[in-house]
C-alpha cells in the first residue's frame, strides 16, 4: 500500500508526493519497499525481487506502454479525463485564438513565449531556410508518379541528414538549433514538392514574403500567376490547424523520435523515425481513414448499419477514441469551430461533413461508445477541412507531419539534455523454444 511520507517543492510551485509502496512477494514471503515519486515507481526497483539468487529479478510487462512513463517532460500536458491540452502550461484554446504556429513552435522548443526581438529573429531564420538543395528535387523526381507523399516525405527528411553531415555532431548544441530551424523551415517545401510530384506539376520555390502557412499554400497551389495571394481566412485556418497538431506528448511518433534519438543519430534521422510512426492509420494516418470511412458510409441513412458493424467488432470508428483522452479531444472542438468559417471562405459544401456530424451524434448517443468513453479525436474533422482546402486524401498525414516537426524537435532536444538519457532497449518475455538442434535442409 502507498504511504504519503513527504511532499517536496520543485522550485516551480509544483508539489511532488514522495511515498513508498510495500510489496510482498507471495512466492517467497519477502517484502520490499519501493519508492513512489511523481506518481510513478521505477521499473528497475522491481529487479531486486527474486525467488533466489539465480533469478533475473522481476520485470514489468507493458505492451504498447499503456501504463509506462518513458521520460519526464515539461513540454505538453494532457488531462485525458477533463479533455485539457496545454503547451508549456498555456491552454491550446488560448494558443489557437491568439498565437501563430511559428510562435508556438518557439514556445515548444525554447520553453517560453518569445519576446518581439526573439520572434523577429526566429521568423527571419525560418523564412530564410525554406529552400532545399537542388539535388533534393532530383531525388524527388526519382519517385514513381503515384508515390505516396508520406513515403516521399519520410525518405526526403531522412535524406536531409546526408546534406547536413554536421548535424551528426550531437555534442554541439549550436547544431541542434540549426537542424531545428532547417527542419521546421524545409518541411513545408518537401511536403509541397511531394504533392506537386504526384500531380506532375513543376515544383514551386518558397516565397519569403509570405507567412509560413501562406508560403505553404503558395508552394502547393501556385500556377501561372506572378504571385500567389493566399486568402487570409484560409491562411489563418491552416495556421490554427498547425498549432493544434504541433505537439502531443508521448504518442507513437514522438516516442519513436525519442527511441531512435536515444541511439544518438542526427536529428534529421530521428525525425524520419517520427514520420514513420505517424504514417500508420492508428496514428496520423487516421485522418485519411476517417475520410475513406465517411465516403464508404456514403449517406446518413447508412450510419446505423455502420455503427452496428463497429459494435459487432467488424470495424473501427476511425477518428474516435484515444489512449489518453477519455473525454472530447479539445483539438477536435477547436477544429469544429473553424469548419463553417472555412467552408464559407472556400465556397464549398462537403457532404462528408453532414455524415460526420450525424455519425458523431449517433455514436455519442450509444452506450457502446459512451461506456468505453470514446469521443471524437483531432482526426475526426481535420480531413473534412483538408478536403475543403483541395488537399488530396493521400496528403492528409503529410499535413499532420509538417507542424508536428516542432513538437518532435522540442522532445528530441529535451531528451538530449536529459541527465537520464540512455539508449532505449526494452526487455522481452521470451516465449520460444530453447536448445533446438539444427536440422540440415535435406532432412527437414
Ligand atoms: N472504434 C470502435 N471501438 C473502439 C475504438 C474505435 N475507434 N477505439 C477503441 N475502441 C474500443 C476497443 O475495441 C476496446 O473495446 P473492448 O474493451 O470491448 O475490447 C476499447 O474501446 C478500448 O480500446 P483500445 O483499443 O484498448 O484503446 P487504445 O488506447 O489501445 O487505442 C486508439 C487507442 C486511438 C488506437 C483507438 O481508439 C483507435 O483505434 N481509434 C481509431 C483510430 C484513430 O482515430 N486514431 C487517431 C488517434 S488521435 C491522433 C493521434 O494521436 O494520432
Give a verbal description of the structure.
Mean pLDDT is 93; it is low at 1-5. Helix 1 (92-98) runs antiparallel to helix 8 and helix 2 (101-110) runs parallel beside helix 8. The protein is globular. It has 444 residues and is an alpha+beta fold. Helices cover 48% and strands 9% of the residues. It contains 17 helices and seven strands. The longest helix is centred in the middle third of the chain and has 27 residues, at 173-199. Strands 1-2-3-4 form a four-stranded antiparallel β-sheet, with no helix packed on it. It has a three-stranded antiparallel β-sheet with strand order 5-6-7. Carboxymethyl coenzyme *A binds next to loops. The site of carboxymethyl coenzyme *A has 20 residues, from loops.
Which structural class should the secondary elements be placed in?
alpha+beta
CATH architecture of the largest domain: Orthogonal Bundle
Give the termini separation. Answer: 55 Å
Profile the largest sheet.
Answer: 4 strands, antiparallel
Mean pLDDT: 93
Here the CATH topology of the largest domain equals Citrate Synthase, domain 1
Please compute the radius of gyration using only Cα atoms: 24 Å
Spell the H/E element sequence. Answer: EEEEEEEHHHHHHHHHHHHHHHHH
Number of helices: 17
Q: At the first level of CATH, what is the class of the largest domain?
A: Mainly Alpha
With strands numbered from the N-terminus, the spatial order across the biggest sheet is 1-2-3-4
CATH superfamily of the largest domain: Citrate Synthase, domain 1
Bound small molecules, by name, code or SMILES, are: carboxymethyl coenzyme *A
- What proportion strand? 5-15%
